[in-house]
Amino acid sequence: MAGKFFDEWQVGDRIEHEIRRTVTETDNLLFSTMTHNPQPLHLDVEAAKESGFGQILVNSTFTFSLLVGLSVGDTTLGTLVANLGFDKVVTPKPVFIGDTMHAQSEVKELRESKSRPEAGIVTFTHELLNQRDEVVCRCERSALLRRST
Description:
The protein has helices spanning about 25-35, 40-45, 45-50, 60-75, and strands at about 15, 20, 80-90, 100-110, 120-130, 135-145.
């Protein structure tokens, strides 16, 4: 399903995104090194064993990015003018290598754009859940979307 236009959304619309993704060691390693994040919790098995987690902890910025990526196809693909911001990003549970993620989204607010009459602002709440349906990441995303007309 392609993303929807501003005027196709209603407050309260909910989507259970179909794509699921199992997090791999390669995902975590590449993302951490690409972003120059040398945190031993993400890269050093022995250091991670000594932590309160007892194992490698997946980089939380990867977790956040995966959440946004899993939501795009159903929300803003092909209709996005610009992402205006991400707010209230929280990671209430850890993500470990081998966890399988899925996402859900809800429209929280719709606003007319004052500067762009051909577009409007949709605020989504996105949640990423693991295989036990525990929320591992949540955020609000404000997106400027084109109108269908």
